[in-house]
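Researcher: Go.
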Amino acid sequence: MKVTFRVDASLEIGTGHVMRCLTLANALKEQGAECHFICRKHPGNLIETVQQVGFQVHSLTAQKKSLTNNQPPNQSNKEKPLFHAAWLGTTQAQDAEECEAILKQLQPDWLIVDHYALDKTWQQALKPYYKKLMVIDDLGDREHLADLLLDQNYGSTAEKYQNLVPENCKLLTGTHYALLRPEFAQWREYSIKRRSKNTQIKNILITLGGADPDNYTAKILAQLAKSELNPQTEITVIMGATAPHLEAINQQAAALPISTQVKANVSNMAELMSKADLAIGAAGATTWERCCLGLPTIQLVIAENQRKTAQALAKASIVKILHHPNNLPQLLAHAPDWLIENAIKARQITDGLGVERVAEEFKPPYKQEQRYARP
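Model: Structure:
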């Protein structure tokens, strides 16, 4: 079976889309699939990371103009503008034209698309060059031609995609299908046991995205320096190697009165999370990693498309939302009141085996009878 992923990372997009696709690619590889990636060379891309773990990447050239939240200036009037259109760095028509030659060569059985800037326009243009299409989405804001669609977010249901996918599209929705690396399921029991009665904070883990272009990490560290923490508290900051503020964060960490270390491109995230008492994290894909391990979390919404899910999690007492970095000292002061409840409710969200469930869908014969059909 041949599988091709169309996915990007950038300073604006972040790293989560590529990382969850890598998780699925590794699971499919274990089933014998040959996996390829198509990625554009945006600033902050993860092309080298994908190559280092053993997958071939077919690169698309980035435009010289930087990405913005506005529609690309050369967006075709024939294309329905998408809210995240600028994340593509070009038009859907141009992107499809560049991908066409690659897909003609690869002839994938499955094309997997994880990109907020692509919809049925792009999918239809490339339909002759793949057998089946899977879409990974979180938003439910555009139409797809998918045979299989995954939305791994808390509270997502099939109804979210009514009238957005073909009637015979099978929908996998909810955190039961969260794409987590196997290490999280492996560390789950240890992590849950060690924090079952813990109301003390001795180890804080900060994960505000692989890129963190707006440098929220610096703002959090500044507030931690003002907080009344145990002098023995240890802080660990996780960042991507391409993060633009990595060096500045290293310097800031060295000057803090509390022991603080900065790590880039870690390969043992599950272990680090399992040994932390509290996480201060972005409301992105790492949310499900923290939930799997029952890690109490103060969550910062750094992208508008994360807000709805973050608010739902906070309402269910699964996370605490940090509306502004200045509020951090107060949240920490009251942490003993909510740490255990947060840990218990978080671990009920996902068991870390979602990628196995999703990978099952690729084992022949394809399960036609289980597909979702609208009433």
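Model: Residues 2-180+353-370 form a domain with the Rossmann fold fold (CATH 3.40.50.11190).
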